[in-house]
Amino acid sequence: MTEQAPVPLRPAATILLLRDSADGIEVFMVVRNHQIDFAAGALVFPGGTTDPGDSAPQLRAYCDGAEGLDDTALTVRIAGIREAFEEACALLARPAGSAALIEPARAAALGEKYRTALEAGEIDMLAFCQAEDVRLAIDCLAPFAHWLTPVRMPKRFDTYFFLAAVPKDAGLRHDGQESVESVWITPAQALADEAAGSRTIVFPTRLNLEKLGRCKTVAEAIAAAHRTPVVSVMPTVERHPDGRTLHIPEAAGYGQTSYFFKS
User: Fold this and answer.
1) How far is the C-alpha of 115 from the C-alpha of 86, rounded, in Å?
2) Is residue 165 part of a domain?
3) SS3 category, 53
4) In a domain, 100, yes or no
5) Are 160 and 146 in contact (CB under 8 A)?
């Protein structure tokens, strides 16, 4: 019997939105709607797949920090910024001619005006940038991780993870559609909640929380991300009568290479 070809990978991007707190780094996370078909009910970082408009050639002229990035690398970063805006009202963009990010009050107003239309595909990021005369802050994104879904899974994603700092008063909030709850939380607390059974966290999210939790401040985490090469991770699956083991590369830097999951 001919082996079935793997499901194609869908490019995707996720941004870990960070701020400092008295308890250490906090990351903004959302709880996925139970009605959606991927990671339903899970605590996740805002993100999603690329849209056709994210690769519009004209968008490069509206990006700060696009120099040296090929079209694919730029597209996933634009997708990450769009998804963070849609899902969290985090707008990593600047008014044209300004070095500062758009202030939280204006970001909130733009969210009210554009988030729903962007999610529905009624407008794209090029139209948004042109209408509001803003530039996307690609230079605020620090590459953090790259995960690919194993080959035999029915849904497969090619996901790039980035870090970005946001102001304490950013006013982030979930969209009420794809996500139904949101929280600023330390990596340690998120992992403790999962261990206690009060939250669901998928495997790549858990490992990236553990990795983020090694740093005490946002500046430390972003500096570490910039100096550490990202190693792609596509887990290989070893099946057993009582469960399965996922193997990942040691060079990816998660401190462990094999993880057993009981059936």
Assistant:
1) 5
2) yes
3) helix
4) yes
5) yes
For residue 53, the tally of other CB atoms under 10 A from its CB is 19
Domain residue limits at 79: 10-230
146/163 Cα distance (integer angstroms):
12
Number of domain units in the chain? 2
Residue 79's CATH number: 3.90.79.10
In a domain, 66, yes or no: yes
* Residues 193 and 90 both lie in one domain: yes
* Lookup result for tokens 């004209």: 58
Which tokens hold the place of 203? Answer: 């495997």
pTM of the model: 0.93
pLDDT band at 1 (very low <50, low <70, confident <90, very high): very low
Q: What is the pLDDT of residues 41-54, one digit of tens each?
A: 789 999 999 999 99
> Would you say residue 80 lies in a domain?
yes
Distance set, CA 133 to CA 113, 129, 140 (Å): 15, 5, 18
In order, the DSSP letters of 164-205 are EE--TT------SSSEEEEEEE-HHHHHHHHHHTSS---HHH
Q: What is the pLDDT of residues 232-243, one digit of tens each?
A: 999 999 999 999
Distances in whole angstroms, Cα of residue 110 to Cα of each of 8, 59, 159, 237: 35, 19, 27, 44
Reading phi first (left if > 0) and then psi (alpha if -120 to 50, else beta), residue 237 is in beta
